[in-house]
Design a protein that fits this description.
The protein is of the alpha/beta class. It has 9 helices and 12 strands. It has a domain of 184 residues: 3-Layer(aba) Sandwich (Rossmann fold), CATH 3.40.50. The chain starts with a strand and ends in a 14-residue tail after the last helix.
């Protein structure tokens, strides 16, 4: 049995205006996929493809208009128990917006531990120290506030929070897109190490082809709400020449400005 299954998921939004209701807009159409435990699915697509909507559906935050989302064989929207929330966590693009600026790093990471595990004070303190070590930070950083961290460091705090409950799946929603090249490489390396040591599965939602290739085992392309490409290996994705892969590659800026061109 697959860890995660999407079965014919479709979703749409209605546009409500004053005294009028416009026709609904379809953002996802008949999306089906599977994800095995311990693997990373790179879900690529340009802006407006429906990636973030799909991420919210996977997290149990937005029920699709049609289809099912199964986690360990259980429909997350019809299940009487919501225990899956401990097993599915998320890391967002904007680390500063993803945390409460009035809480310390320790309080931020402790939130899911308090909500789901109910650890004693001593066990909580030990767990927090271990999590900081896992993400490459110091236990002394637990007393710092978000404005005392760099963007890369704060993203490590968000990753520590995501792995705190020992989840089986983490949704990475553009998790490295706001970082500079150096921090992006460091965070991708951290995510790769955590995946291997903790047996994590990822859904890596991104428009960054290079980042996806650095972390993902399998690749799918979402375009205008539909899955238009499925590549089971890095090699098959790297060698793909179809129009959807080419469009995503062309949307990525070259690293050096002299290598960039302006389309007219």
């Amino acid at each position: 049995m697959s860890l995660l299954q999407l079965e014919h998921v479709s979703h749409r939004y209605g546009n409500q205006r004053f005294l009028a209701r416009q026709a609904e807009q379809t953002v996802l159409q008949d999306v089906s996929l599977t994800l095995e435990a311990g693997t990373c699915l790179g879900l690529l697509g340009r802006s407006g493809a429906g990636k973030s909507t799909l991420g919210r559906i996977l997290l149990g935050l937005e029920r699709p208009k049609a289809g099912r989302v199964l986690f360990n064989g259980q429909d997350i929207y019809d299940a009487a128990s919501k225990d899956f929330r401990k097993d599915i966590q998320v890391v967002f693009q904007d680390s500063f917006a993803a945390v409460n600026p009035k809480l310390t790093a320790g309080q931020i990471i402790a939130e899911p531990l308090t909500n789901f595990l109910g650890l004693s004070p001593d066990a909580l303190d030990e767990r927090l120290g271990g999590l900081m070590t896992q993400v490459g930070l110091s236990k002394t950083d637990l007393t710092k506030y978000p404005n005392q961290f760099s963007g890369g460091q704060l993203q490590r705090i968000c990753i520590a929070r995501a792995i705190a409950t020992n989840p089986k799946l983490i949704i990475l929603d553009e998790a490295v897109s706001s970082l500079d090249m150096v921090n992006k490489a460091l965070i991708l390396d951290l995510l790769r190490n955590l995946k291997e040591t903790l047996g994590l599965a990822y859904v890596f939602i991104t428009h960054d082809v290079q980042a996806a290739q650095a972390l993902s085992d399998r690749f799918m392309i979402l375009d205008q709400g539909q899955l238009v490409g499925d590549y089971p290996t890095l090699r098959s994705f790297s060698e793909a020449t179809d129009e959807h892969v080419q469009a995503i590659r062309q949307a990525v800026l070259a690293i050096h400005p002299r290598d960039r061109t302006i389309r007219k």
